[in-house]
From TrEMBL:
UniProt cross-references to PANTHER family, sorted A to Z: G2_M PHASE-SPECIFIC E3 UBIQUITIN-PROTEIN LIGASE, PHD FINGER PROTEIN
Gene name in the database record: G2e3_0
Ranges annotated as spanning the membrane: none
UniProt subcellular location: Nucleus
Gene3D superfamilies: Hect, E3 ligase catalytic domains (3.90.1750.10), Zinc/RING finger domain, C3HC4 (zinc finger) (3.30.40.10)
Name of this chain's protein: G2E3 ligase
Length: 748
């Protein structure tokens, strides 16, 4: 049935009565939108209609009132006319309590006044004041007062209808009215805990407690030009003595009169010339920010950040994907034999993969590896890591599509890797999307130019090793960020994050030394991370925490607190100790201060650096995958890994099959220790790297069997050229002689 909405004046609409509750109130926040339809002589509050017990949406979205057919509405009005409201004692009570054996009925506005709960989800249930769901508080939480984190007014920590507690944060309390207004404004896509940004758990609890979360975009997203003011950048020179003759507001890009903003606050600026800066790449802080950075532990609050974009929406799937009929319209341990059936044999003529059906049986390279390998079954954890690392490889290859063919050369002194790398990354023409070319120089200015990928692998390996042992990180073996004021001043944390991001995308190794706490801070935000005792690298601080944590009586706990009074005061962790259980809260406060709050400024700089080439965004989208390469050491090379890594190019003379047999046997001998070389030596001989980078090799490693005297490792093409021999012993001797002597000469 079609109808049109009345275009009467507001006074005309307000004079009409809702057919379900009989009120004239026009309050969309409390009762939903009030709609009047002249053609059907009908006025109704949207929430009254939505929560009525005897009506369902049987029509399409454009039929009736948002799918509620007019005939069904009339039937519901007739049904409700026979029911008396248990609150106001008038007829027309269309809503009933869903609790078993409860026969209470009431109007929607009456239920609000009597503090009933209406759940705007699934079957749109209603609960009377006696059977409504309540939040459970512990004795410690009840009885005090806190601030509503939305309006900042005081709120009583009591199980009241007007008070709601966050399910994801211990000390987050809200007024119900504040939460409802926020939900109506934010909509289902942006409504979340204002303290920790949790969305799933928070929305699920708020829906259970009767908060209506509309399926719409946030109000600020719908407002035209809402962010126009944010597009303006600060352009003013605040130096006491400005040297620019054209004034403090003059800004000429790519010149000495270009204005650079404070890297910390962005609300102060300077011409490059006025602060004697030779390059835009130099960092600059205003006097106010310098004074703040100079004070220990006194940093500005970090802005709350949303969780990773890979959020699951369990709490809202019922609203978004499968609406209810009344939804508003909008085998481990078993032995196995590996068949190395030349998984990647390429035809020599067209270099396309040859299916096994195209080869006669004699051309299939098949053999069973030794019992030593067949006994090495991967654990579930290792299988999971391998799966995640394959996923990371694909993600990094996608990010590498940003890299163009334009080259940037970095002159690197291997004996001073950090300073030369820092200089290269900060040079004006450095662009992470350019192809990086490495030129190694020694301290005597004798250059050794190597433009191959091997040189780049070696550079990033040295750089990651330096970062692992630098003062920017602390702890062993898993590391967190340390607090180095000089590094903060020189913006070294940003540069470290940038170097790691560039290494991952450009084919270098991953750091592999991140602690789980550091990784979670980067991915989910520090406000959502709970550190552990093993994250504390400072021996004295760890000892203090242990004294408090393992105190077995109230007197010993108070004594421990007294002994470290100055430390607790400086950390802002002093709290009254009235019982032994207070130690748990105190230990948690110390850990959060020392591991997280103390390094907020370095952490934020490090995060900004990791945003280079979109790495941090992918970390947040695929946390499990990136954790496998940032928090775990690379898997030790095995014969199976090397076998899978190389693609064998077949030849037309039939020597490939026998040569591949020798290659497989040789890998087994190397793995079992029956060779003077290692699997790492083989990889280094061919690619110039001792490990497989997370992104993989480019080009992919290949093997060719040729009529040559000795093996050749072509690092430019990652190609291993192997001699065709009649006997395996001859093949093995040539491999060991060549690889051992080549690497020995390189090391010397």
């Amino acid at each position: 049935e079609e109808f049109r909405m009345s275009e009467n004046s507001n006074s005309g609409i307000q004079s009409s009565f809702c057919v379900l509750c009989g009120r004239t109130d026009d309050c969309p926040e409390k009762y939903g939108e009030k709609r009047t339809y002249v053609a059907h002589n009908l006025t109704v509050h949207y929430y009254c209609l939505l929560m009525s017990s005897g009506i369902w949406q049987r029509g399409e979205e454009d039929e009736g009132v948002d799918g509620f057919l007019i005939a069904d509405i009339q039937k519901e009005v007739n049904r409700a006319a026979k029911l008396k409201c248990n609150i106001c004692k008038k007829k027309g009570a269309s809503i009933g309590c869903v609790a078993p054996k409860c026969k209470r009925s009431y109007h929607f506005p009456c239920g609000i006044q009597r503090e009933c709960i209406f759940q705007f989800m699934e079957d749109f249930r209603s609960y009377c004041w006696e059977h409504k769901p309540i939040q459970k508080f512990s004795d410690k939480e009840s009885g005090g007062t806190s601030q509503c984190t939305i309006c900042l007014d005081l709120v009583e920590q009591l199980p009241l209808y007007t008070v709601l507690k966050s399910p994801c944060c211990k000390n987050a309390w809200f007024h119900r009215e504040c939460l409802q207004y926020q939900a109506l404004s934010a909509g289902i896509f942006f409504f979340r805990c204002s303290v920790c940004n949790n969305k799933d758990k928070f929305q699920k609890e708020m829906l259970r407690m009767g908060i209506h979360i509309p399926e719409k975009d946030a109000s600020w997203e719908l407002e035209e030009n809402a962010y126009q003011d944010l597009l303006q950048c600060y352009q003013h020179c605040d130096i006491k003595r400005c040297l620019c003759k054209k004034g403090r507001d003059y800004n000429e890009p790519d010149s000495k009169w270009e204005i650079k903003r404070c890297q910390c606050c962005g609300s102060r600026g300077t011409h490059l010339a006025c602060s004697a800066m030779k390059s835009w790449e130099q960092n600059w802080e205003c006097m106010e920010c310098r004074s703040i950075l100079a004070k220990s532990g006194n940093y500005s609050k970090q802005k709350k950040r949303s969780l990773a974009t890979s959020e699951k929406t369990d709490g809202a799937t019922c609203l978004l994907e499968e609406p209810s009929p009344k939804c508003p319209r909008q085998s481990s341990g078993s032995q196995r034999t590996f068949l190395l059936q030349s998984p990647k044999i390429m035809c020599q003529n067209n270099l396309s993969p040859c299916s096994h059906r195209e080869h006669p049986a004699s051309n299939r390279v098949r053999m069973s590896l030794s019992p030593l390998m067949s006994d090495r079954n991967c654990s579930l954890r290792k299988k999971h890591l391998r799966k995640n690392r394959r996923e990371v490889s694909n993600i990094l290859k996608e990010l590498k599509l940003q890299v163009n063919t334009k080259t940037t050369r970095l002159n690197i002194n291997a004996e001073n890797i950090w300073n030369s790398a820092l200089k290269g990354f900060r040079q004006r023409n450095f662009n992470p999307t350019n192809t990086i070319e490495i030129k190694f120089t020694n301290c005597k200015n004798r250059s050794q130019t190597d433009t191959s990928a091997a040189s780049k692998h070696h550079f990033f390996q040295l750089l990651m090793l330096h970062l692992q042992n630098s003062s920017l990180f602390e702890g062993s073996p898993a590391k967190n960020l340390s607090l180095d004021f000089q590094a903060v001043k020189e913006n070294l944390y940003f540069e470290a994050g940038k170097m790691i991001a560039v290494s991952l995308v450009h084919g270098g190794p991953s750091p592999c030394f991140f602690s789980k706490t550091l990784f979670n801070c980067l991915v989910y935000g520090p406000e959502n991370v709970k550190p552990a005792l093993e994250d504390v690298a400072d021996v004295d601080v760890a000892r203090t925490i242990k004294m408090i944590k393992y105190a077995n009586s109230l007197s010993s706990l108070q004594s421990a607190v007294h002994d470290c009074y100055e430390f607790l005061a400086a950390a802002g962790c002093l709290r009254p100790i009235t019982s032994l259980c207070d130690k748990n809260m105190l230990v948690n406060d110390i850990l959060i201060h020392h591991v997280i709050k103390r390094i907020i400024s370095p952490l934020e700089s490090f995060r900004q650096g990791l945003k280079t080439l979109g790495v941090l965004e992918k970390m947040q989208t695929h946390p499990d995958a990136f954790s496998s390469i940032l928090c775990h050491k690379p898997e030790r090379l095995s014969a199976e890994t090397i076998c899978d890594l190389f693609t064998i190019h077949s030849s037309s003379d039939g020597n490939t099959v026998e040569g591949a047999d020798f290659w497989m046997c040789y890998l087994q001998d190397v793995e079992s220790g029956e060779s003077v070389v290692t699997l790492e030596d083989i990889l280094l001989f061919v690619t110039g790297s001792i490990s497989i980078p997370p992104i993989g090799f480019d080009p992919e490693p290949t093997i060719k069997f040729l009529h040559i005297r000795y093996p050749v490792g072509n690092r430019l093409l990652n190609c291993l050229e192997l001699p065709i021999t009649k006997a395996y012993d001859q093949f093995k001797n040539k491999m060991e002689f060549t690889i051992r002597n080549t690497l020995r000469v390189e090391r010397e």
